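User: These chains co-purify. Model them together.
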Amino acid sequence: MNRNLQPTMKDVAREAGVALGTVSRVFNGYPVGEEYRERVEAAAEKLNYRINNYARGLKTNKTFCIGLLMPSLRHPFFAALIDELTAALMHRGYLTNVMITNFDPGAELKCFNLIEQNKVDGIIALTYRPDLVVESAVPVVTIDRQFHPAIPCVSSDNFRGGQMAAEKLLELGCRKLLFLRIGPEIQSEADRRGPGFEDVCRRTGTAYDSLLVNDEETEAPVYQFLSRHLQDGHLDFDGIFCNTDGLARRVMEFLERNGVRVPDEVQIIGYDGIIDFATGCYVCSTIVQPLRQMAEAAVNLLLSSETPAGEAVLRLPVTYVPGGTTRDGPAAVGDSGVYNPFHTEFR
Amino acid sequence: MNRNLQPTMKDVAREAGVALGTVSRVFNGYPVGEEYRERVEAAAEKLNYRINNYARGLKTNKTFCIGLLMPSLRHPFFAALIDELTAALMHRGYLTNVMITNFDPGAELKCFNLIEQNKVDGIIALTYRPDLVVESAVPVVTIDRQFHPAIPCVSSDNFRGGQMAAEKLLELGCRKLLFLRIGPEIQSEADRRGPGFEDVCRRTGTAYDSLLVNDEETEAPVYQFLSRHLQDGHLDFDGIFCNTDGLARRVMEFLERNGVRVPDEVQIIGYDGIIDFATGCYVCSTIVQPLRQMAEAAVNLLLSSETPAGEAVLRLPVTYVPGGTTRDGPAAVGDSGVYNPFHTEFR
DNA sequence: AGCGCTTCATGAAACGTTACATCACTGTGA
DNA sequence: TCACAGTGATGTAACGTTTCATGAAGCGCT
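Assistant: Joint model of the four components:
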């Protein structure tokens, strides 16, 4: 029959002199007589047989493939998250269909369509389209956005992260705090960073202000705001919490350019835990998200498909790490602060 | 029959009152009478029918899925490459199975096995295992490594890149050049950067030196070498070409820490074209690889599966971009040098 | 020896498609 | 009027698995 193509189970069965079903059972770990098992394994080895996942998937409706919907790969936070997710999935024998949407709702629709007809066993999505998630034919776990009580969501403990940032700044001697937030206007778990921060300020009676910019296009309002509070090299705040490491870093550079020393005069804490590829150091003092645990949790929730009890959002504990924009000094990753991209311990 | 499950072609056929084959032809773009086509489309719409790629794949041996084997996602160069590749594949209607090996040969084997039994239509690989590539049952296109004359390889024009670096440094007034190379000892297209650089030095009679460190673990030899050529704040070279942006950046910081001003006293050029996520600027003056073109080419080669004429390696043109470590000034990406991660133009 | 039990190999019937050989129907030309 | 293309719908046989009903073989017991 199909010479010159890949061998099939039928070929293995003929070679081993057993029935088709027996070969199947060997490959699925069902009990098979020792002698038969050996004959089958020898034949499979000899023919270099590979099981055909498409035939199997057709029959069983399980594909061992998960769709991953992410907004970007250029941003180190998303890249690291995808890295952890693919690793966790691979570890359980799942393949990952990665789809990058570039924050484009149209692209998200296209991805969902492709994913559905490709019959993945589930989807892990960091998406901006509640409608698609809710209507999905396959199970979904979302990251950072809770769309529906029955759809599990994994995120870091953003509220606690905000609290930690405030507590840390106070502990380091700050007296007048500022919260800066920038990003697209979509309801997400990340919105709890500000409230956490303000909670501590209020409870400790600390003076604070905040600026929320719901804009995806420009950070200009932030710099205008800071300029207004700048007077001959002195800023009106001595501790700043930014909702993102990127913003923290840029605010730091803005202040330094305007003669405000960081961390001497103003201390800054960001959020995410992003590491600079060249130095291997955190780009700023930061609340780091437990990426690996989040990935593990997302995969577990998706594959066990038991709806978690109560509210369907899992908030994993964050940690604070000094990174040079606070007075508690930098914390280098790796030996000498020199990052080697081929340095696997780094993962 | 299978109520409560996804509708099948049979269901659509019954609903539309046509034969199974007719439905199939509609979905595959074969000529079908207008009236029939409409009935089928209406029925499919009504039942919310999705074609089952696993059944189709079983029958046709085409899966519209490509395996992507990459060493890392934490390094911005790989992340950007994967981004371009998934985009190019998606654009052609292909899904991408991303697998990260973390430079681990054992993991590479595991990935190849998984990929083969999952019946992808082809593989794009940046791998360290010639054996697996050569023996692969499905077509492979490699990035940066030519393993076999019949297996296409895509890379940037590394030799020309090396030449450009040297030419640029000379043009900017350098007189004593240095080439620094670090990385694992594997034969790859990147090895041509040094020879290109040296080619220009030799032809112009320029004084130059080079240091090649075949080590994946540490860059210490580089800093020892530089220390030996440092004397009270003066370095023995005034132009350095590093085989990597990361190295270039770290060398810059090392020199600055030792009182050597960059780019005033020493100018540095790196290779890759990596952009800092926080600032949106190149991390150093650099030879940038045409990632998008490389991705397009890889996908084209893989999907057209015509073996290219002659030598099977495609070397795409690089460009030089000033990035602050040379005297021709920085070139910011985007308007104000401020990078917004939600800024799609950035792609 | 014969009975019931367990264990385990067998063969065939799906799974949801595509592709191919039929066949019904229309229209044309002699 | 009839044969003959040509068009296009139909039904069926694969594709490579899993699963299930069947039945054979072995074993312990009466």
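Residues 332-347 of chain A have pLDDT under 50 and may be disordered.
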